[in-house]
Amino acid sequence: MKELVTIQVGNYANFVGSHFWNFQDELLGLASDPNADLVFKNQDLNMDVLYRSGETHQGIPTYTPRLVSINLRGSLGSMSSHGTLYKESAPTPSDILTWTGGVSTQAYTPHNKNLFLQRLYEEENLSTVNENTGSNNGSHSECQDKDIIESLENDVQFWTDYSKVHYHPRSLYELSGVWTDVDEFDNYGNGTNSFSWSSQGEEISDSLRFFVEECDHIQGFQFLVDDSGGFSAVAAEFLENIADEYKSTPVLLYTVRGPGPRASPQSRKRTILGDLHDAVSFSRLSSYCKLIVPVGLPSLSKSKASKFLRIEDEKHYHSSAVYAAALHSISLPFRMLPVGPTTDACSVSGAVDVHGVIQMLSGQGRQNIVTVLDVAMPAHALNGGPNQLSLLENLQPLTPQVVEDVEDMQAIEYMTVHGALAPGGHHASVSEVKDKVDAASLRANTRPLFRHLSVARAPLPIPLPFPSIFGNHVGQHGEFIGSEMTNSSSKGSIDVYSIPMAARLRSSNAVLPLLESKLQKLHRFGIERGAVGAEILRSWGFGKEELEEMEEMLSKMVSTLCPPHFSSDSD
Length: 571
Fold this sequence. Notes:
Blueprint: E1 3-9, H1 11-31, E2 51-55, E3 61-65, E4 67-73, H2 115-133, H3 145-155, E5 172-179, H4 188-194, H5 197-213, E6 218-226, H6 231-245, E7 251-256, H7 268-286, E8 291-295, H8 316-331, E9 348-349, H9 354-362, E10 372-376, H10 391-394, E11 396-397, E12 412-418, H11 430-443, E13 450-456, E14 460-461, E15 498-499, E16 501-507, H12 512-527, H13 534-539, H14 544-561
Parallel strand pairs: 1-4, 1-6, 4-5, 6-7, 7-8, 12-13
Antiparallel strand pairs: 2-3, 9-13, 10-11, 10-16, 12-16, 14-15
């Protein structure tokens, strides 16, 4: 088995991660549910790739994500940093005094569980009682699903507010000295000033080591970072440590951020500060990974990716669900069971590990490490009619500043389709999906140099705490039922049980505008003579040589993707 360790750094990264783990928990539940759709019964997925087995001090078996999550102090809401499986012991006060200066105290009132978490707690307690007594009583909660959904839509403040997953005590880490109500943790410099690897890094490293050392054969790290502010600096320190300690273990890095501007209105100084942060953050983070995937549109609600969705950009609860769904699709092949040549009898095809994907996208040809993430949510059925868009045509970018319909003869694609619906409404077989994708590729105006296709029959399950973001023309299983009605309410988990998905990582020169923008802003505001942001970068701890190295690195990324220019002059 090739295990995968997931790392989530920053608030928005944990919003995405919370949805991601809810999908995994839902798949586990459906696989053992006698009343569930048969497509979930034999998924041909090895969930041990993402999860670890253990037991509590009382000998109770546990199955928890192989995860290290880092966030600000006070960011866990009603959840303890020890998780929910283990009893938390009170900290022992120290008699040793090492500080003689003034002391300020920051404290917060513990948050109460919302309706969803109350229901979860009641059901788990009832399950324990039934196991101990041998009874089979149902839940007596007066809290209805619609009340829970309404509560979540209006009141989600923390990523734990909608998490249905148990976490190991070594998984959750809160940065000491930095609290969630501190608004100034919004750029790389603040992250550098607030976090010291020498004082807190060893504890984080120990947590990661705990999960890595129990792996038989780790395939890589799935790393999510909220790169919109100070967490970029925290993640860069963490990634540097990983690069030193686990040299041969690849890192697949997702930089994620929610929609909207950092601050409004934006002054010129704040705009320059943000531009410098973006350039420095991207350069630093990309230097410690094998593949980087920028994720996060300025307005997801107005994008083509939300054609069949109703997103409220101001709600992280909404946008993070879309990004998590795409990441779930991308990660499916990492835990597919190997199958033989008779794919019709199987539920999956195209298994590959993290190393294989990284080699595929960045280790060949021009060796571009920056890839585009595309998604079709929900994916269209395989009708194949003359006016029906194909799976390929429905894929839309979740990566910002990407050129549409670009022709790139050296493009490489890694694509996953799962839960696709056949014309009769049933879930299509693996071979049906592969045939349709091949046919669509032959009809396409542009084709990649190479495409790897992975297919799974199991669709994306929609758990109860998933936000109500589906248009009213999306049916119970993600099929399209007529046209959109503008004045009707959106749908959630009560109305939609599962959806077909398609997601793709694409190594393409379509990402050039993103890279050129970062390079130009770093040079203009931070490096050229008299640059207005030079003092800002010095205050962040960057000297001239480091900035020139960043500029050189970004220049190489751009030149890697630029087509060659041939001079008309003869030598």
